[in-house]
Amino acid sequence: MYYEIHGGKHCGTPLVLLHGSFMDTESSFGKLLPELVRHRPVIAIEQQGHGRTADIDRPLSYEQMADDTAELLQQLGAAKADFFGWSMGGNIATQVAIRHPEVVNKVAVTGSFFGPIQTAFTEEGYKGFTAIPDDFAPPVLKDAYDKLSPKPERWPAVVSKVRQMGLAYKGLSDDQLRGIQAPFMIMAGDQDTVDLIHLVETYKKLPNGALAIVPKSDHFLPVLGYEQVLQLLEHFLDHGSDP
C-alpha cells in the first residue's frame, strides 16, 4: 500500500489525504498539498488499485479501504489523525470515523455521499455513474494510471470494481451518523453530482457537524476551487467549527 509523508519537520496531528476514484495523490491534491504541508504533517495514501498501489484479487469497498487505512496508520505509529477525503476518499474517511473512531481527530470530506446513490446523487449524477462503460478510459485518468500503477493492465477490473462498489453501497443509518462524535465537515460545490438536500439532511444528523457549500463549483472542487477548499479546510482543522 503506497503512501507518502510530507511536512515531517512539523509536530502535531497529521492530516491524512484520501483521493477520489480512478485518481492518485497528485491528481487529487497536487494543488493543495504544498500549502497544507506548510503547517502540519501530511500522510497521503493510495488505495487498492489506485496510483502506485496494485489491485489485488479482492472487491473494492469503502469499509475495507477504511480498514486498510487504519491498519497503515497503526503501522506508522500514528495514534490519531485528521482526515480529508474527496469523493470515494470521503466515503472512506467516513467509514474510518465509524469503524475506527479511536484514530480520528477531525474529518472533512468533499463530493462524498452517505446513502444509496439512487437517493444521494442528483438525477444527472446518478445517470452518469450508472452509465460508466466497460471501456471507460478518459486520458486524464488513464494516462496517469498507466504511468504509476505496478499493474496497469488491471485498469478494466478497477473500473468494474468502482462501479460495482458505488451501486452496491447501502449508505449509513441515522444511528451510525449520530454516533460519529468527531468534528465532521461536509464540503461540496453547489453543482456537485451529490444532491445538496441529501448533504443538508446528513449534516443535521451529525453531533459535531459543519457544512460548507461553495457557489459556482462542481465535483472537482479540490482542483478547480482549491483556494476555497484550502481556506475552509484549514479553518476547520484549526477551529473545528462552521466556516
UniProtKB/TrEMBL annotation:
Limits of the AB hydrolase-1 domain: 15-224
Gene3D superfamilies cross-referenced by the UniProt entry: alpha/beta hydrolase
Listed transmembrane segments: none
Keywords, sorted A to Z: Hydrolase
InterPro entries: AB_hydrolase_1, AB_hydrolase_fold, AB_hydrolase_sf
Domain of life according to the entry: Bacteria
UniProt GO MF annotations: hydrolase activity
Protein name: Alpha/beta hydrolase
